[in-house]
Amino acid sequence: MDIKSMKNYLYWLYCQFELITCSYLMEPWEKLLFYTFNISMLVTVLYTAYIFVPVHISTAFQFFLYLFENQHENTVSIVK
């Protein structure tokens, strides 16, 4: 894929984005506010996912590890 076709493809994606969000109807200052809000929300979601998802995965892993360890000990004590 050469540079010109990549540029055309990115422009096509941008046009599709404007059509889907109807931002092509907005004035430039409205577009600026709209894009600023959307980008800030995206950054907030990505930051939250980066900070909190690994903590929750670690906590869930420790919880399930604790459950499986206790289950093994309980079955061994019943057999004895």
Automatic annotation (TrEMBL):
It is found in: Endoplasmic reticulum membrane. GO terms for biological process: ceramide biosynthetic process; endoplasmic reticulum organization. The keyword Methyltransferase does not apply. It comes from the Eukaryota. PANTHER family: SERINE PALMITOYLTRANSFERASE SMALL SUBUNIT B. The chain crosses the membrane at residues 32-53. One of its GO terms (cellular component) is endoplasmic reticulum membrane. Component of the serine palmitoyltransferase multisubunit enzyme (SPT) that catalyzes the initial and rate-limiting step in sphingolipid biosynthesis by condensing L-serine and activated acyl-CoA (most commonly palmitoyl-CoA) to form long-chain bases. The SPT complex is composed of SPTLC1, SPTLC2 or SPTLC3 and SPTSSA or SPTSSB. Within this complex, the heterodimer consisting of SPTLC1 and SPTLC2/SPTLC3 forms the catalytic core. Within the SPT complex, SPTSSB stimulates the catalytic activity and plays a role in substrate specificity. One of its GO terms (molecular function) is serine C-palmitoyltransferase activity. Keywords: Endoplasmic reticulum, Lipid metabolism, Membrane, Sphingolipid metabolism, Transferase, Transmembrane, Transmembrane helix. InterPro entries: Ser_palmitoyltrfase_ssu-like. This is Serine palmitoyltransferase small subunit B. It is a multi-pass membrane protein. Component of the serine palmitoyltransferase (SPT) complex, which is composed of SPTLC1, SPTLC2 or SPTLC3 and SPTSSA or SPTSSB. The heterodimer consisting of SPTLC1 and SPTLC2/SPTLC3 forms the catalytic core of the enzyme, while SPTSSA or SPTSSB subunits determine substrate specificity. SPT also interacts with ORMDL proteins, especially ORMDL3, which negatively regulate SPT activity in the presence of ceramides. Pathway: Sphingolipid metabolism; Lipid metabolism; sphingolipid metabolism. Pfam families: SPT_ssu-like (PF11779). Belongs to the SPTSS family. SPTSSB subfamily.
